[in-house]
Amino acid sequence: MNELYLDIHGIKLHISCDRHEIIENIERDFSYFRAQTPALPNFHIESYLKSDYQEKKPAGFPWMKTKEFLCYEKQGEKRVLYSSGDLVILDYKKNIAQVFSKTSSRLHERVFTLLLSIIGELGEKRGLHRIHALGISRKGKGGLVLAPEGGGKTTLALSLLNSGDFKLVSEDTPLLDRNLLLHPFPLRIGVRLGTHLDIPPQYLRPFERMKHANKILIDIDFYRDKIEKDPVSLSWILFSKISKNQKETCSIEKISRLSLFLLLLKYLVIGRGVCQLEEFFIKKDFRDLCLKFMILKERLFISFRIAIKFKPYIVSLSSDTKKNADMIGSFVPGFQ
After folding, report:
1. Which of 41, 171, 250, 269 might form a disulfide with 299, Cβ 3.0–4.6 angstroms?
2. In terms of Cα–Cα distance, which of 291, 182, 103, 23 is closest to 13?
3. What is the distance, to the nearest Å, from the Cα of residue 167 to the centroid of all Cα atoms in its chain?
4. Do 115 and 15 contact (CB within 8 A), yes or no?
5. Whole-model pTM?
6. 100 close to 310: Cβ distance less than 8 angstroms
7. pLDDT tens track of the chain, all 336 residues?
8. Contact predicate 32/227, CB 8 Å
């Protein structure tokens, strides 16, 4: 078996696979968190590229059923059978998971999304909450740019990294604690096929997705010198949107604190856009339900603190990525 160890802010993970290319892809996805030496892991994931795993498939009646999967649970073990034929067996009492798929691309994505779900859950127990936003820093001060799916976070992140003294905290899901510190969570960056990139080909690879359009992945190693190494204090927050007329000049306007709080309910408290995987997030466990209620309260507390403390603004992005970056670059010092 090929192996990989990760250490994500003290969360230690061990991933193994019978195919080298899967481990290589996961290592490139999480390269910032590679652990050089094995350590006692908090969670194990075993993955297998197989054409037949009939003996592992669950029997009986599922307790959760959707168009995408059937979920079976018994005595702390979940067996999730996907409509694609993929299978994940997760023992959340022993902290071990097995992932089976018949295709390499699906196995890669199953392991990647399962890792995000596990990191999110273990991180929440340590007080690290994921928020769907672009996290960046400048001169030791952190900022968040909230945006809907397709709202331009990735394009803006690349523009800021290429045009000034900004550093990346996370392109998609920075980690936030109750003291309003942003913790780095940089992963591979996905861009649409056909996007012009001035990046050497060794840092790029195609990615075939199960539900959405295929993408090109950028290894975060290309931006290693522009990644924030330490937690930074949250100092400003924006909500971005794409201008209805892309030729319009970019602009920034104030919004109400209530509007900001409602956005935080969506992107932090509910976790819209954050990979949570309902098939693993929801358990038939009363203690787990109580824990999730306490986590929900903590997210609400953090959202309230942010809405009270910061003046919120909305930025309308134009088609000129350099102007967008310059505008935010000139505006950010106003928060300091």
Report:
1. 269
2. 23
3. 17
4. yes
5. 0.92
6. no
7. 899 999 999 999 999 999 999 999 999 999 999 997 777 899 999 999 987 787 787 888 888 899 999 999 988 899 999 999 999 999 988 999 999 999 999 999 999 999 999 999 999 999 999 999 999 999 889 999 998 877 788 988 999 998 778 999 999 999 999 999 999 999 999 998 888 888 999 999 998 877 777 889 999 999 999 999 999 999 999 998 776 665 567 788 899 999 999 999 999 999 888 888 888 888 888 888 898 899 999 999 999 999 999 988 998 888 888 888 888 888 876 554
8. yes
Q: Which pair of tokens denotes residue 69? A: 């999967």
Amino acid at position 335, single letter = F
DSSP string, 167-180: EEEESS--EE-TT-
Give the H/E segment covering residue 291. helix 286-309
Find where tokens 């100092």 sit.
235
Q: Tokens for 91?
A: 């023992």
